[in-house]
Amino acid sequence: MKIVHLIQYHLGGGRKRKGGKGGHTPTPQLPDAGKPYVDSVSYDKDAKKVRLRAQNARAGEVKTPLGDWQEFPVDVPEPTPLPDAGKPFVEGVTYDPDTKKVKVRAKVAQAGEVKEPIGEVQEFPIHVPTPPAPPAPTLPDAGKPRVSKFDYDPSTRKVTVQASVSQAGEVKTPTGDEQTFDIPAEAEPITGVVYEYLVDNMTAMPQDVAADTGTPPPGEQMGAAEATLYPADPPPGPMVSVYSYVKPFPVGIQLSLRPLAVSPGKASYLGDASIYVLGSNLVISRQVSIVDN
What we know:
Blueprint: E1 37-44, E2 49-55, E3 89-96, E4 101-107, E5 146-153, E6 158-164, E7 192-201, E8 207-210, E9 226-229, E10 240-243, E11 247-248, E12 261-263, E13 266-278, E14 281-291
Parallel strand pairs: 7-14
Antiparallel strand pairs: 1-2, 3-4, 5-6, 7-10, 7-11, 8-9, 8-12, 13-14
């Protein structure tokens, strides 16, 4: 192969003679080297690099520096699939009572591919200590309780009282002192006695009741002496009040309970009788349920 030293050529053509004199030799004609092309391609799977080698068809003048497009099959091995890492989950939860913060740590079951990025909803019990109760404030002494209001109603013979302490604060002495109040004298003497019956029907049949019989004495009566109680589903029916005739109330009389007449059932008396004064009458009241005979 002939080696051509390009440094010996200039733009004017041939090689000069020695001493700078003389004519020029003609520029030699080089053979066409052809288009450059890639001769081979290989893939290094360890280095993950493609190796190429380009060349021309022959030595000579490269008249076309840009070669044609070429395609080469490259055997790139498929990567080994990763194992399923599983869903992420929270492994543990701790609560720091000093900082009042919750610490959590998430993980997956194993190294690999996370195919489901969202894990399940989890719940963890957290022990939050109960803070100590603040000290009780010091309250002023409220004083002893006492009855600050006392009223007596002579028509009902009832006393209305109201208790209070001297100020808001701590009641250190729960029991107050004994107090005495005067009750005004009765304006109207008791002249009569009446038996009152508060009756309900517990049976499935109509019931006739009578607190008194015969002709009522002269004067105003407190209410009806007889009534019919109808059954209700479920029992009992509405409560009905019946009254005996007003009986004279002489001083020193001994009072006794009077039975209520019932048909076809029988009277069942509930609890003890109560006594109150209404106007000039002493009323003896009893609660009665009518049951089957």
